[in-house]
Protein backbone atom coordinates (compact mmCIF):
# COMPACT_ATOMS: atom_id res chain seq x y z
CA UNK A 1 0.00 0.00 0.00
CA UNK A 2 1.15 3.54 -0.64
CA UNK A 3 1.73 6.17 2.04
CA UNK A 4 -0.49 9.26 2.43
CA UNK A 5 0.02 11.99 -0.13
CA UNK A 6 2.23 9.65 -2.17
CA UNK A 7 1.42 9.65 -5.85
CA UNK A 8 1.25 6.25 -7.48
CA UNK A 9 2.89 5.91 -10.92
CA UNK A 10 0.56 7.56 -13.41
CA UNK A 11 -2.02 7.89 -10.66
CA UNK A 12 -3.36 10.25 -8.01
CA UNK A 13 -1.94 10.94 -4.55
CA UNK A 14 -3.45 8.46 -2.14
CA UNK A 15 -4.24 8.22 1.53
CA UNK A 16 -5.11 5.30 3.80
CA UNK A 17 -8.68 4.77 4.97
CA UNK A 18 -10.26 2.38 7.46
CA UNK A 19 -13.77 0.98 7.07
CA UNK A 20 -15.96 -0.95 9.52
CA UNK A 21 -18.12 -3.39 7.60
CA UNK A 22 -21.13 -5.60 8.37
CA UNK A 23 -22.33 -8.43 6.17
CA UNK A 24 -24.61 -11.44 6.05
CA UNK A 25 -22.39 -14.40 5.22
CA UNK A 26 -25.06 -16.73 3.86
CA UNK A 27 -24.92 -15.72 0.15
CA UNK A 28 -21.12 -15.65 -0.03
CA UNK A 29 -18.45 -18.30 -0.48
CA UNK A 30 -16.42 -16.75 2.32
CA UNK A 31 -14.80 -13.37 2.78
CA UNK A 32 -11.47 -13.75 0.96
CA UNK A 33 -11.26 -12.92 -2.72
CA UNK A 34 -11.35 -15.92 -5.03
CA UNK A 35 -11.43 -15.33 -8.76
CA UNK A 36 -14.79 -16.22 -10.26
CA UNK A 37 -16.39 -16.83 -6.84
CA UNK A 38 -18.94 -14.60 -5.05
CA UNK A 39 -17.11 -13.33 -1.93
CA UNK A 40 -17.41 -10.37 0.44
CA UNK A 41 -13.91 -9.11 -0.36
CA UNK A 42 -14.56 -9.39 -4.08
CA UNK A 43 -17.73 -7.30 -3.86
CA UNK A 44 -16.14 -4.67 -1.61
CA UNK A 45 -13.05 -4.41 -3.81
CA UNK A 46 -15.21 -3.97 -6.90
CA UNK A 47 -17.44 -1.35 -5.29
CA UNK A 48 -14.70 0.73 -3.61
CA UNK A 49 -12.51 0.63 -6.73
CA UNK A 50 -15.44 1.73 -8.90
CA UNK A 51 -16.52 4.60 -6.66
CA UNK A 52 -12.98 5.81 -5.91
CA UNK A 53 -11.95 5.33 -9.56
CA UNK A 54 -8.83 3.66 -8.26
CA UNK A 55 -8.04 -0.05 -8.04
CA UNK A 56 -7.69 -0.94 -4.35
CA UNK A 57 -6.15 -3.82 -2.46
CA UNK A 58 -7.81 -4.57 0.87
CA UNK A 59 -6.19 -5.49 4.17
CA UNK A 60 -8.67 -7.48 6.29
CA UNK A 61 -8.83 -7.96 10.07
CA UNK A 62 -10.30 -11.47 9.83
CA UNK A 63 -11.03 -13.78 6.90
CA UNK A 64 -14.33 -15.47 7.72
CA UNK A 65 -15.48 -18.74 6.15
CA UNK A 66 -18.48 -19.28 3.90
CA UNK A 67 -21.72 -18.66 5.80
CA UNK A 68 -20.05 -16.77 8.67
CA UNK A 69 -21.32 -13.24 9.31
CA UNK A 70 -19.57 -9.99 10.20
CA UNK A 71 -20.78 -7.10 12.33
CA UNK A 72 -17.52 -5.31 13.08
CA UNK A 73 -15.16 -6.46 10.33
CA UNK A 74 -12.42 -3.93 9.61
CA UNK A 75 -10.72 -3.32 6.28
CA UNK A 76 -8.15 -0.76 5.16
CA UNK A 77 -6.90 0.38 1.78
CA UNK A 78 -5.37 3.33 -0.05
CA UNK A 79 -7.68 5.61 -2.05
CA UNK A 80 -7.24 9.03 -3.70
CA UNK A 81 -6.72 11.68 -1.03
CA UNK A 82 -9.47 13.92 -2.42
CA UNK A 83 -12.13 11.24 -1.90
CA UNK A 84 -15.22 12.34 0.02
CA UNK A 85 -15.61 9.46 2.47
CA UNK A 86 -19.29 10.12 3.20
CA UNK A 87 -20.15 10.02 -0.49
CA UNK A 88 -18.02 6.92 -0.97
CA UNK A 89 -19.82 5.10 1.85
CA UNK A 90 -23.24 5.98 0.45
CA UNK A 91 -22.29 4.84 -3.04
CA UNK A 92 -20.60 1.61 -1.91
CA UNK A 93 -23.61 0.73 0.25
CA UNK A 94 -25.89 1.36 -2.71
CA UNK A 95 -23.86 -1.08 -4.79
CA UNK A 96 -23.48 -3.77 -2.11
CA UNK A 97 -26.87 -3.76 -0.38
CA UNK A 98 -28.60 -5.62 1.12
CA UNK A 99 -25.97 -8.15 2.19
CA UNK A 100 -23.02 -5.79 2.84
CA UNK A 101 -22.96 -2.45 4.62
CA UNK A 102 -20.08 -0.08 5.32
CA UNK A 103 -20.91 1.23 8.78
CA UNK A 104 -18.18 3.86 9.06
CA UNK A 105 -15.10 5.22 7.31
CA UNK A 106 -12.20 7.38 8.44
CA UNK A 107 -8.74 8.46 7.41
CA UNK A 108 -5.94 6.77 9.36
CA UNK A 109 -2.15 6.91 9.66
CA UNK A 110 -0.09 5.53 6.80
CA UNK A 111 1.22 2.66 8.96
CA UNK A 112 -2.25 1.43 9.96
CA UNK A 113 -3.10 -2.05 8.70
CA UNK A 114 -6.50 -3.63 9.39
CA UNK A 115 -4.91 -7.04 9.94
CA UNK A 116 -1.52 -6.39 11.49
CA UNK A 117 -2.52 -3.40 13.66
CA UNK A 118 -5.35 -5.33 15.34
CA UNK A 119 -4.72 -6.34 18.96
CA UNK A 120 -7.81 -8.54 19.41
CA UNK A 121 -10.80 -10.05 17.66
CA UNK A 122 -14.17 -10.80 19.28
CA UNK A 123 -16.47 -13.49 17.91
CA UNK A 124 -20.01 -14.43 18.95
CA UNK A 125 -21.63 -17.80 18.32
CA UNK A 126 -25.39 -18.28 18.78
CA UNK A 127 -27.00 -21.63 19.59
CA UNK A 128 -30.77 -22.08 19.50
CA UNK A 129 -31.38 -24.53 22.37
CA UNK A 130 -35.08 -25.34 22.04
CA UNK A 131 -37.00 -28.55 21.25
CA UNK A 132 -38.15 -27.16 17.90
CA UNK A 133 -36.26 -25.12 15.28
CA UNK A 134 -37.03 -21.49 14.47
CA UNK A 135 -37.15 -20.70 10.73
CA UNK A 136 -36.37 -17.04 11.52
CA UNK A 137 -32.96 -18.10 12.88
CA UNK A 138 -32.10 -20.70 10.25
CA UNK A 139 -29.11 -18.69 8.98
CA UNK A 140 -28.26 -17.03 12.32
CA UNK A 141 -27.97 -19.87 14.82
CA UNK A 142 -27.14 -23.56 15.25
CA UNK A 143 -30.20 -25.48 16.42
CA UNK A 144 -29.36 -27.99 19.16
CA UNK A 145 -32.59 -29.52 20.47
CA UNK A 146 -31.12 -31.45 23.42
CA UNK A 147 -30.82 -29.39 26.66
CA UNK A 148 -27.37 -27.86 27.14
CA UNK A 149 -25.71 -27.16 30.50
CA UNK A 150 -24.36 -23.60 30.44
CA UNK A 151 -22.52 -24.05 33.79
CA UNK A 152 -20.64 -27.09 32.42
CA UNK A 153 -19.73 -25.28 29.21
CA UNK A 154 -18.45 -22.28 31.17
CA UNK A 155 -16.43 -24.56 33.41
CA UNK A 156 -14.84 -26.05 30.29
CA UNK A 157 -13.96 -22.52 29.09
CA UNK A 158 -11.56 -21.93 32.00
CA UNK A 159 -8.79 -24.00 30.40
CA UNK A 160 -8.97 -21.95 27.19
CA UNK A 161 -7.61 -18.82 28.82
CA UNK A 162 -4.13 -17.41 28.21
CA UNK A 163 -1.53 -18.18 25.57
CA UNK A 164 -1.60 -21.77 24.39
CA UNK A 165 -1.03 -23.95 21.36
CA UNK A 166 -4.48 -24.53 19.86
CA UNK A 167 -3.41 -27.15 17.31
CA UNK A 168 -6.19 -29.47 18.50
CA UNK A 169 -8.81 -26.86 17.60
CA UNK A 170 -7.37 -25.55 14.33
CA UNK A 171 -7.04 -26.50 10.71
CA UNK A 172 -3.30 -26.05 10.21
CA UNK A 173 -2.34 -24.52 6.85
CA UNK A 174 0.36 -26.12 4.78
CA UNK A 175 3.73 -24.38 5.36
CA UNK A 176 5.36 -22.52 2.53
CA UNK A 177 8.23 -24.39 0.83
CA UNK A 178 11.31 -24.28 3.03
CA UNK A 179 9.42 -22.68 5.92
CA UNK A 180 8.66 -24.16 9.37
CA UNK A 181 5.07 -25.12 10.32
CA UNK A 182 2.78 -22.20 11.06
CA UNK A 183 2.40 -21.52 14.79
CA UNK A 184 -0.97 -22.32 16.32
CA UNK A 185 -0.28 -20.35 19.51
CA UNK A 186 -3.00 -17.83 20.35
CA UNK A 187 -3.80 -15.72 23.43
CA UNK A 188 -7.43 -16.06 24.59
CA UNK A 189 -8.55 -13.13 26.73
CA UNK A 190 -12.20 -14.04 27.36
CA UNK A 191 -14.50 -17.00 26.75
CA UNK A 192 -18.02 -17.25 28.18
CA UNK A 193 -21.48 -18.69 27.48
CA UNK A 194 -24.62 -16.66 28.27
CA UNK A 195 -28.22 -17.87 28.45
CA UNK A 196 -30.24 -15.08 26.84
CA UNK A 197 -33.52 -16.29 28.32
CA UNK A 198 -35.26 -16.60 24.95
CA UNK A 199 -34.08 -20.07 23.99
CA UNK A 200 -30.78 -18.85 22.58
CA UNK A 201 -27.31 -19.21 24.07
CA UNK A 202 -24.40 -16.98 23.08
CA UNK A 203 -20.75 -17.93 23.22
CA UNK A 204 -18.39 -14.91 23.32
CA UNK A 205 -14.68 -15.43 22.76
CA UNK A 206 -11.96 -12.81 22.40
CA UNK A 207 -8.32 -13.42 21.50
CA UNK A 208 -5.36 -11.66 19.93
CA UNK A 209 -6.03 -13.74 16.79
CA UNK A 210 -7.68 -16.97 15.70
CA UNK A 211 -6.44 -19.75 13.46
CA UNK A 212 -8.61 -21.33 10.78
CA UNK A 213 -11.82 -22.89 12.13
CA UNK A 214 -10.70 -22.33 15.75
CA UNK A 215 -13.92 -20.75 17.03
CA UNK A 216 -16.21 -23.25 15.33
CA UNK A 217 -14.09 -26.15 16.58
CA UNK A 218 -14.06 -24.86 20.17
CA UNK A 219 -17.82 -24.26 19.98
CA UNK A 220 -18.46 -27.78 18.73
CA UNK A 221 -16.31 -29.18 21.54
CA UNK A 222 -18.07 -27.10 24.22
CA UNK A 223 -21.50 -28.19 22.99
CA UNK A 224 -20.34 -31.79 23.47
CA UNK A 225 -19.52 -30.83 27.06
CA UNK A 226 -22.92 -29.14 27.43
CA UNK A 227 -24.59 -32.34 26.26
CA UNK A 228 -22.65 -34.22 28.96
CA UNK A 229 -20.90 -36.36 26.38
CA UNK A 230 -17.49 -35.38 27.75
CA UNK A 231 -16.35 -33.74 31.01
CA UNK A 232 -15.23 -30.09 31.30
CA UNK A 233 -11.75 -31.33 32.28
CA UNK A 234 -11.30 -32.60 28.71
CA UNK A 235 -10.51 -29.06 27.54
CA UNK A 236 -7.06 -29.11 29.12
CA UNK A 237 -6.40 -32.66 27.97
CA UNK A 238 -7.34 -31.87 24.36
CA UNK A 239 -5.22 -28.70 24.26
CA UNK A 240 -2.14 -30.46 25.64
CA UNK A 241 -2.55 -33.38 23.23
CA UNK A 242 -2.11 -31.16 20.14
CA UNK A 243 -4.21 -33.75 18.32
CA UNK A 244 -6.88 -32.43 15.94
CA UNK A 245 -8.72 -35.76 15.98
CA UNK A 246 -9.68 -35.27 19.64
CA UNK A 247 -11.91 -32.27 18.80
CA UNK A 248 -13.52 -33.33 15.52
CA UNK A 249 -16.93 -31.66 15.90
CA UNK A 250 -17.08 -28.44 13.91
CA UNK A 251 -20.03 -26.14 14.67
CA UNK A 252 -21.86 -25.03 11.51
CA UNK A 253 -20.93 -21.59 10.14
CA UNK A 254 -24.30 -19.81 10.33
CA UNK A 255 -24.18 -19.22 14.10
CA UNK A 256 -20.85 -17.38 13.99
CA UNK A 257 -20.29 -13.62 13.69
CA UNK A 258 -17.09 -11.58 13.75
CA UNK A 259 -18.43 -9.08 16.24
CA UNK A 260 -15.66 -6.55 16.84
CA UNK A 261 -11.97 -5.89 16.23
CA UNK A 262 -9.83 -3.98 18.69
CA UNK A 263 -6.90 -1.64 18.09
CA UNK A 264 -6.40 -0.31 21.61
CA UNK A 265 -3.28 -2.24 22.56
CA UNK A 266 -4.98 -4.03 25.48
CA UNK A 267 -4.35 -7.69 26.09
How would you describe the overall organization of this protein?
The N terminus is likely disordered. Strands 1, 2, 3, 4, 5, 6, 7, 8, 9, 10 and 11 form an eleven-stranded mixed sheet that branches. The protein is an alpha+beta fold. It has two domains: 102 residues, Pseudouridine synthase I, catalytic domain, N-terminal subdomain (Alpha-Beta Plaits, 2-Layer Sandwich), CATH 3.30.70.580; 143 residues, Pseudouridine synthase I, catalytic domain, C-terminal subdomain (Alpha-Beta Plaits, 2-Layer Sandwich), CATH 3.30.70. The radius of gyration is 20 Å and the shape is globular.
Brief synopsis:
Helix content is 20%, strand content 28%. It is an alpha+beta fold and 267 residues long. A hairpin with a 5-residue loop joins strand 1 and strand 2.
Topology:
Blueprint: E1 6-7, E2 13-23, H1 40-52, E3 59-60, E4 69-80, H2 85-96, E5 100-107, E6 120-128, E7 142-143, H3 150-157, E8 162-165, E9 185-195, E10 200-207, H4 214-226, H5 234-241, E11 256-262
Would you report the number of β strands? 11
> Looking at the chains present, what oligomeric state does this protein adopt?
single chain
CATH topology call of the largest domain: Alpha-Beta Plaits
Anisotropy-based shape: globular
How are helices and strands ordered from N to C? EEHEEHEEEHEEEHHE
Radius of gyration: 20 Å
> What percentage of amino acids are in beta strands?
25-35%
* Tally of individual helices: 5
Helix percentage: 10-25%
Overall structural domain count: 2
